[in-house]
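2024-03-11 09:14:02 DEBUG pipeline.ingest accepted 1 chain
2024-03-11 09:14:02 DEBUG pipeline.ingest length=252
2024-03-11 09:14:03 DEBUG pipeline.predict start
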Amino acid sequence: MKPPSLAAQQFGAGAQSYLESPVHAQGADLDRLRKLAERQGPASVLDLGCGAGHASFAIAPHAEELIAYDVSAPMVALVAAEGVRRGLTSLSAQEGAVEDLPFADRRFDWVVTRLSAHHWSDVPKALREARRVLKEEGLLVIIDIVAPERSLCDTMLQSVEILRDASHVRDYRVSEWSVLLSHAGFRFVDINTWKIPIEFASWIERMRTPELRTEAVRSLFAGAAPEVREYFGVQDDYSFQIDAAWMTARPC
């Protein structure tokens, strides 16, 4: 049997904390998803890398079918149980890797992923799979942390992310997402970005980051160039802010 990925191990152990995390459970992007689901009407939806299921819970009341899909078995079990608790009869949960989707071609009306893609081991392959299972008139919605276009700030973000969470792969720049989507057979429809405030202590606790790595993150922020500290809004307690983006695309 293939051993679980690092991401599956990392997030499986902290599934409940992600269900309760304000960063993941709240946000204008969830309200936007609800409104989008209402406008779309009954549809078949796939939530890729569903995590604790917040995107799924926003969409499911308006969907004909919603499959919450994640590499972490504990996350999948949590979402399934929470879906039952909330009475979301359209929702089912399934375990698996985003790079290998066990679904037929053109199965879904839309595919969504929220705060997950920066953990995917092979984003180009995952996007090709999303393109394959999406109907020709379908919609892809990507909500994720994005890196600054400026290399100095990009390097800082990737450094603190991987120190805090060894399963981190990359927060992609918007310009990189544009290329990735184009190569996978998508075209951009719209994009908007905003800042997410990160409370340092809970951010570290949620991932159970070892103290040595936590100190390294503090040291990086403390020793960063003034323009980097200003960009991330680093505070005295090391709380900071990061960029997030909502990206909508359709098959070419």
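2024-03-11 09:14:41 DEBUG pipeline.report The longest helix spans residues 151-164.
2024-03-11 09:14:41 DEBUG pipeline.predict end
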